[in-house]
Design goal:
18 strands, elongated, single chain
């Protein structure tokens, strides 16, 4: 939750790190990427090249680097790391018990190969993928979640990399907590502070995020006398925030951004919609969680 709730303040840093989306690498000259969403251990990214939308990639990390499935207007492509510096080379692509003689193109430390419908179906339904490029060591990745990742990449490509933005005016639902990750707790005790309340003990509870959000956290005072907050994090730079005052229901407080050292504090962004401006009512808003 970097940028909105201090990792050091929380007793479940391991949970936070496990929930971070897979970070993509650029695999071509002049590329940039933006996080679109996540799907069962895969990160999905919209790719920009030469100032325009170039497609979407589902990325799976492993001990031997990243394996990427790219969807563009030209179709599907598999991208994996390589040590080769020539333009092309032979390889064996393996999906479970299927071995496919293949030709890969090389560029900038990555090897790529177009995928036909039959190839993609093998990957979608497979358990294990391997690539053995002539002159490289054999590289292997699990295919857990590949069907969900392919669907997410197709969704990303069809929307040109623009994720659907949930209706901001809706109060947050009360989702069930995610199952524990490596037995880490989902609730942590912290010290909260705001301009209007000063310091007070608080409880931070992690919830399952809705589509379009990376993380969701409810922050309650541990003893009363301060408002509750519900924070839905879109990125390290922006979160949608709701507040509850005296138990009178959630009120949308707009889009917030991190401020201060280590991003332990956040405050409303400079531009807000009419609903958030009405609910905020004044300028003295901030929240720090340590």
């Amino acid at each position: 939750m970097t940028g909105f709730i201090s990792k050091a303040a929380m007793a479940f840093a391991g949970v936070w790190m496990a929930a971070l989306p897979v970070q993509a690498q650029t695999a071509g000259v002049g590329e940039s990427y933006a996080h679109y969403g996540d799907a069962r251990g895969w990160g999905v990214y919209a790719i920009q090249k030469a100032g325009g939308f170039a497609g979407c990639r589902a990325v799976r990390s492993g001990a031997q680097g990243q394996m990427m499935l790219e969807k563009s207007r030209l179709g599907w492509r598999l991208i994996v790391p390589t040590y080769q510096t020539a333009r092309f080379g032979g390889a064996i692509l393996g999906v479970d018990k299927h071995d496919i003689d293949s030709q890969f193109g090389f560029e900038g430390g990555f090897a790529s190969r177009d995928l036909g419908g039959a190839d993609l179906n093998l990957i979608r339904n497979g358990s294990f993928l391997s690539v053995e490029i002539m002159g490289d060591p054999r590289r292997e990745w699990p295919l857990t979640g590949s069907a969900a990742a392919i669907l997410k990449a197709e969704e990303c490509a069809s929307s040109y990399g623009v994720a659907a933005r949930p209706q901001a005016q809706q109060a947050p639902a009360s989702p069930q907590p995610q199952p524990p990750v490596q037995a880490q707790p989902q609730t942590a005790y912290a010290t909260c502070e705001s301009i209007t309340t000063g310091q007070y003990p608080c409880v931070v509870t992690r919830h399952t995020p809705e589509q379009g959000y990376r993380e969701a956290y409810q922050i309650d005072p541990n003893g009363g006398g301060a408002p509750s907050y519900f924070v839905k994090i879109r990125s390290e730079f922006e979160a949608d925030v709701w507040g509850m005052f005296d138990g009178n229901g959630w009120r949308y407080l707009g889009a917030w951004e991190p401020v201060g050292p280590n991003g332990a504090c956040s405050q409303p962004k400079g531009t807000q919609g009419a609903e958030a401006l009405s609910n905020l009512g004044q300028d003295a808003w901030n929240l720090c969680v340590r």
